[in-house]
Structure of DALR anticodon binding domain-containing protein:
Amino acid sequence: GGKGWDEFLQSQAEACMILQLLSVSPNTPVKVEVQESDNQNTRAMAFILYNYARLCVLFDSFQSKVASGDMPSLPDTSEINFSLLSTDDEWSLIWVFVLDWPGVVETFAQDMLSADNRLPKFSAVVRFLLSLSHCLSAYYSRYHVLPQTPQNHLLPQMYARLYLLKIIQRLMEICFHTLGVSPPRVM
């Protein structure tokens, strides 16, 4: 552990615990058991944080390559050919998560504004984040978005994928903010 390592671990543990507590439906009692050998309870929540951190590292790496002149910078969205996002995984990220998010927010807001004092279902946001993390992880494992050495003919697809992942990263940040969780800082 270097400087700030304890603080980093504490913030990640807090985020995992908040996500774990909010993953339970409001009408379900929370059962907390602490056992040294049992890390099942927080594994799924750590998976969410891990996938967000992967995106942070990807974009930090991209910015480093741009700063060193090894890669051209990201062009404006008006110059991106988003039709290059054509894999089933890319379509899942777009259709199932990016375009479904407003429905999750609408349901959440209706619960908050209901006259019958329904509790907002934070658990729906946590489930959304967990499903998104699984889809993102599969995508990230199958497609190498950021090549070591860029080839000009592959840059348009790389840019489209970077923008897709930038949207996913922002969506995760919005979910974290909604839940009152600080997104992980990458060390």
Notes: The mean pLDDT is 85.
